[in-house]
Amino acid sequence: MRQVRLADDEPLLDAPRTYNRTGRPPYPVEAMYRAALTKHLLGLRYYRELAEMLRSNRTVRELCGFTDCVPNTSSICRFFGRLTNHLDLVDQAVHRLADRIAEAVESRWE
């Protein structure tokens, strides 16, 4: 399944990587970011709704970039908490994403 390229969002993706980790290996930041976008785009209100969708919907899980192991509600909540520490980067990334979508739509209509 084709994944959306998020390379333009490297400043945002690098920010969560700086947190100290202990215990098990972290989930891929790119997959967690795609899950955050999915939550927003699908209008999911709660983190547990996103966790359940990732567990039950293979297509969404694969589009986000998760394989066999998906994050639980706590992991998702922690990631969102880390993103809120970088709202300026989130805002910039959302604007870049909107611009890329607009360009893609325009190119299809030309």
Question: How would you characterize this protein structure?
Answer:
The model has no long low-confidence stretch (mean pLDDT 82). The protein has helices at 10-17, 29-41, 47-56, 58-64, 73-84, 87-109. It is globular. The protein has one domain (27-109). Helix 2 packs across helix 4 (58-64) and helix 3 (47-56) packs across helix 5. By secondary structure, it is mostly helical. 66% of the residues lie in helices and 0% in strands. It has 6 helices and no strands.
In short:
By secondary structure, the protein is mostly helical.
Give the SSE map.
Elements: H1 10-17, H2 29-41, H3 47-56, H4 58-64, H5 73-84, H6 87-109
Number of helices: 6
Distance between the first and last residues' Cα: 26 Å
Radius of gyration from the alpha-carbon trace, in angstroms = 14 Å
Proportion of strand residues: under 5%
Mean pLDDT: 82
* Shape, per Cα inertia axes: globular
Note poorly predicted spans: none
* Class computed from helices, strands and strand pairing: mainly alpha
Sheet with most strands: none
The count of strands amounts to 0
- Residue share in helix: 55-70%
Tally the structural domains. 1
Give the topology string: H per helix, E per strand. Answer: HHHHHH
What descriptive keywords fit this protein?
mainly alpha, single chain, 66% helix, 110 residues, globular
